[in-house]
């Protein structure tokens, strides 16, 4: 599989194409909160919306656990917009 380079919170990371944003963030030590990836809860990945991130040039936030990386992505995991959305999900 081909490797791609992307940027998460200003840090470059190279991972295999098809890796989720959540997995790529974990590889460089960035913690993104999530509930739906906990097998004991039985949720479908992407359904809890706790792991939303901001992807530059996308109009909406996206679930990090379900969004595959691609070359050149620029992602923000803790922007004001992201934190506000996570708070709303948990309220």
Question: What count of structural domains?
Answer: 1
Morphology:
globular
Percentage of residues assigned to helices = 10-25%
Uncertain segments of ≥5 residues (pLDDT<50)?
Answer: none
Query: What is the number of helices?
Result: 2
Assembly annotation: single chain
Taking the sheet with the most strands, its summary is: 5 strands, mixed
The helix/strand class is alpha+beta
Strand order of the largest sheet: 2-1-5-3-4
- Averaged pLDDT, please? 90
Alpha carbon gyration radius: 13 Å
CATH C-level category: Alpha Beta
User: Which range does the strand content fall in?
Assistant: 15-25%
What is the correct CATH architecture?
Roll
- Distance from first to last alpha carbon: 40 Å
CATH topology (fold) name: Ubiquitin-like (UB roll)
Number of strands: 5
What's the SSE pattern? EEHEEEH
Topology at a glance:
Blueprint: E1 3-8, E2 11-16, H1 21-27, E3 52-55, E4 62-63, E5 74-76, H2 80-90
Parallel strand pairs: 1-5
Antiparallel strand pairs: 1-2, 3-4, 3-5
Describe this structure in words.
This protein is α+β, with helices and mostly antiparallel strands and 91 residues long. It has one domain: Ubiquitin-like (UB roll). Helix content is 20%, strand content 23%. The protein is built from 2 helices and 5 strands; from the N terminus they run ββαβββα. The protein has helices spanning 21-27, 80-90, and strands at residues 3-8, 11-16, 52-55, 62-63, 74-76. It has a 5-stranded mixed sheet with strand order 2-1-5-3-4, sandwiched between helices. The chain is globular, with a radius of gyration of 13 Å. The termini are far apart.
């Amino acid at each position: 599989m081909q490797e791609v380079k992307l940027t998460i919170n200003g840090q470059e990371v190279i991972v295999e194409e098809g890796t989720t944003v959540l997995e790529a963030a974990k590889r460089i030590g960035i913690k993104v909160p999530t509930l739906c990836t906990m097998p004991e809860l039985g949720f479908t990945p992407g359904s809890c919306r706790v792991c939303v991130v901001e992807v530059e040039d996308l109009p909406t936030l996206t679930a990090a656990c379900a969004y595959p990386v691609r070359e050149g992505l620029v992602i923000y995991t803790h922007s004001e917009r992201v934190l506000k959305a996570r708070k709303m999900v948990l309220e």
